[in-house]
Amino acid sequence: MDGPDETGVVQAQIGEVPTDFGASVTLLDVREVDEWQRGHAPGARHMPMGEVPARLDEIDRDAQLFVICHVGGRSHRVAQYLAQRGFEPINVAGGMLAWAGAGRAVVTDDGVAGTV
């Protein structure tokens, strides 16, 4: 992973992002509801970008935190916001396009194959 950029956000290339999420690692998907419903990473947590400020208490400060969106712009802005509030977020460069492009699973809420 690269060190923090000029905004204080660490960037991770898709190969550096885990594929399993749980108690110690969180993948926070900040895309809109319709994007999430089309397909997301298995085990990701959904929190649309606009809801993040009101839902900070739902983000585990002890877990390693990766933030993802469609291509990496929105997640970078959310990661910057979180970093300013004491979190240590890692932005996923390339977003869900990179995730899917790397052949990683994309699912819908009912567990079937999804799309990005």
Name some characteristics of this structure.
116 residues, alpha/beta, Oxidized Rhodanese, domain 1, GlpE_sulfurtransferase, Rhodanese-like_dom_sf, Rhodanese-like_dom
- Measured between the Cα atoms of the first and last residue, the distance is 24 Å
How many domain modules?
Answer: 1
CATH class: Alpha Beta
Number of distinct helices: 3
Organism: Mycolicibacterium duvalii
Keywords: Transferase
InterPro entries: GlpE_sulfurtransferase, Rhodanese-like_dom, Rhodanese-like_dom_sf
Protein name: Sulfurtransferase
Textual characterization of the structure:
The structure is a single chain. With 116 residues, the chain is α/β, with parallel strands linked by helices. The chain has a single domain, classed as Oxidized Rhodanese, domain 1, CATH 3.40.250.10. Helices cover 22% and strands 16% of the residues. It is built from 3 helices and 5 strands; from the N terminus they run ββαββαβα. Strands 1-5-4-2-3 form a 5-stranded parallel beta sheet, with helices on one face. β2, α1 and β3 form a beta-alpha-beta unit. The radius of gyration is 13 Å and the shape is globular. The relative contact order is 0.25.
